[in-house]
Write a structure and sequence with these properties.
This protein is α+β, with helices and mostly antiparallel strands. Helices cover 53% and strands 15% of the residues. The strands form 2 sheets. The chain has a two-stranded antiparallel ribbon. Strands 2-3 form a two-stranded antiparallel ribbon.
Length: 118
């Protein structure tokens, strides 16, 4: 487990360039000085942990306001709020992918392919 944590920490610094010295040197980050790096890692972990896979028919809204269902399909996506909004939301996906694509191009491309196919 410690090897995985070390690998995560090293990749985090390499990808996002968030280190303790950044919090020490930037006056705007002083309120977060003591826990900023840890909080940043936890936020990324939460974002990546919220990636989900859904399967089922997709409701397509019609011009008259009614909806019809398309054939069942899969959707690999981030979930904006697991408890409050436990499904993918295209608007949020762009913001999530802005961070995720830097972390893993494979996750990014897989998510985009699912959205384009839905």
């Amino acid at each position: 487990m410690s090897q995985k944590r070390s690998a995560f920490d090293a990749k985090f610094v390499k990808v996002y360039n968030i280190t303790q010295s950044r919090f020490d040197q930037d006056d705007t980050l002083k309120p977060f000085k003591d826990q900023g790096v840890q909080f940043s890692k936890e936020a990324l972990s939460d974002l990546l942990g919220g990636i989900s896979y859904f399967w089922g028919p997709i409701q397509i809204k019609q011009e008259d306001g009614s909806g019809k269902y398309d054939d069942p399909a899969g959707l690999y996506t981030h979930v904006p709020a697991r408890q409050g909004f436990p499904r993918g939301f295209l608007w949020d996906e762009g913001f999530h992918l802005h961070i995720t694509c830097q972390w893993s191009r494979f996750i990014c491309i897989d998510s985009l392919k699912h959205w384009f196919n839905s």
